[in-house]
Amino acid sequence: MGEARILLRDASSAAAAPADVERKLGVAELLWNDGFVRKTVIVILLAAAWEIYGVLLDNPLLFPSFHDTVISMYERIKDGTIPLRAWASLKVLFMGYVVGIVLAAIFTILAISTRIGTDFLETVTAMFAPLPAIALLPLALIWFGLGNGSLVFVLVHSVLWPVALNTHSGFKSVSNTLRMVGRNYGLRGLPYVARILIPAAFGPILTGLKIGWAFAWRTLIAAELVFGVSSGQGGLGWFIFENRNLLDIPAVFAGLLTVIVIGLVVENLIFRTIERNTVQKWGTQT
User: Fold this and answer.
1) Does any domain span residue 12?
2) 63 assigned to some structural domain
3) Overall pTM > 0.90
C-alpha cells in the first residue's frame, strides 16, 4: 500500500507539472510579442536619437532636430504642399509600377512556356538588372522628352527585372506534384498559370513585388531631383531639391521624412495585409 501511495503521488505530481510550467503572460509580454509594437518602439527610439543629436549639434542648417522637422512637415501638410507633391509622385509611380508588372508577367509566362523564353529572360535579366535605373534618365529625356514618359521609363526598368526574376524563380520551385494535378485537371496555358503556379509561388512573387516597389520608389525620388531641374516641376524629389536651394533644411528633412513614412505605410500596411491574407493564410510560406 505504501508503494502504491508513492506511485500515485508521483503520478499526480507529474500530471500537475505541465500546469505548473504554464503561466499567464502579462500585458507587457503580450504587447512585446506584437511585431507592430516592437517596430513602433524602434521608430520611437530612432526619433529620440535624431532629436538628441539635432539638439546637441544645434545647427539647423546642417542637421535640424526631429521637432523642427515635424513642425516644418506639419506646416507643409497644412498648406497642401506635401500632399500635392506626394500625390504627383505616387501617380507617376503607379503608372510605372503597373506597366513593369505587366511586362514582367508577359516575360515570365513566355519563360515557363518555351526554352527560348527562359533563355531570353535569364539573358536580359543578367544584362539589365545590374544597370542603375537612374543612369538611363539622360537617354529617357532624349527619347521621351520632358514629361512623365521619361520617369515611367526608368520606373519600368526598376520594377521589371526583380519582379520577373522572383516570379520565374517561384514558378520553377513549384513541386511536380502540383504541376501534375493541374495537368490531370486539363489545365493549360493561362488557366494553369492562374490556378496552379501563381498560388503555389505567391511567396516569391510577393517578394518580387516588394523589391520592385522599393526600387521604384527610390528611383522616382532620385529621378525627380534631376527631372525637376529640367522641367521646373515634380513631386517629392523636386520638393526636396527646391528647398535645398532655398536653404530651408527643415523642409528638406520634412520631404525625406515624408518619403520614409510613405514607404513604411506601403510596406507594413499594404504588403503585410496582402501577405497575411494570401501567403500566411494559404500556408505557402517558403
Assistant:
1) no
2) no
3) no
Residue 285 pLDDT class (50, 70, 90 cuts): low
CATH number where 90 lies: 1.10.3720.10
Quick one: how far is CA 217 from the chain centroid?
9
| DSSP output for 131-188 | S-GGGGHHHHHHHH-SSHHHHHHHHHHHHHHHHHHHHHHHHHTS-HHHHHHHHHTT--
162 contacts: CB under 8 Å, gap ≥ 6: 129, 208, 211, 212, 215
Are residues 89 and 224 in contact, defined by beta-carbon separation less than 8 angstroms?
yes
Contact 128, 122 (CB under 8 A): no
Residue whose cell numbers read 501511495: 5
Residues 172, 102 share a domain: yes
Residues 32 and 76 in one domain: no
How many other CB atoms are there within 10 angstroms of residue 284's CB atom?
16
Q: Does residue 247 carry a pLDDT above 70?
A: yes
The number of distinct structural domains making up the chain is 2
Cell of 120: 531570353
Alpha-carbon distance 105 to 115, whole Å?
A: 16
Q: Any residues with CB less than 8 A from the CB of 218 and at least 6 apart, and which? A: none
If asked whether residues 53 and 83 sit together in one domain, one would say no
Q: Is 117 exposed, middle or buried (0-12, 13-18, 19+ CB in 10 A)?
A: middle
Can you give the pLDDT at residue 6? Answer: 47
Are the C-beta atoms of residues 104 and 125 closer than 8 Å to each other? Answer: no
Provide mean pLDDT across the span 130-159.
86
Cα 283 to Cα 181: distance, rounded to the nearest angstrom: 18
Residues 131 and 187 in one domain: yes
Rg of the chain over Cα atoms, rounded to whole angstroms, equals 26
